[in-house]
């Protein structure tokens, strides 16, 4: 058999965990030597993030506590695609308003990324938003009630990445992609570009169970 031609067939699957924002399943997968191996997969709703750049070339950044690393991280405005039937652009528009109090007149797609393919199906679409206006920011809860908002020059943001002060992978990808586009070295995609890797399993299971419109609210 030639390398790169094996079909990794799933012969069985078991749901190990179902929680508000994720699920965990164990698949039995046929390996190239015809044996079966188990692979645990963290199931995710998918997410969107926004590089929002004002007319002075500054981008909106938020600083949020992340319990998994017990630290406050500088990130892009971002959030889960956890509303039933919501496409990526409306989700990004909602998150930009909720986390930064901003709306944008121009939108495009910078980059799609699979964040941790070794164990998780999470995929994130990062948008570029320009022609910004301020809108009312709704009341925040949980970690977002402690969130800071600031504006950074793109050059300062790139420097912060290289100095290890911005470590969030979505922010790193978005900032460098936006820098290429805004410098004229790259062309973004339209907002109707297919989001091939957007995960579907967790959302489909919640819809089948009648959970919605907020698919995190399992009852």
Automatic annotation (TrEMBL):
Keywords in UniProt for this one?
A: Hydrolase
- CDD domains per UniProt: NUDIX_ADPRase_Rv1700 (cd24158)
Pfam families cross-referenced by the UniProt entry: NUDIX (PF00293)
Write down the top EC class of this protein.
hydrolase
Query: PROSITE patterns from the entry?
Result: NUDIX
Nudix hydrolase domain span: 43-174
Q: Which domain of life is it from?
A: Bacteria
Full protein name? ADP-ribose pyrophosphatase
Classification lineage:
Bacteria, Bacillati, Actinomycetota, Actinomycetes, Mycobacteriales
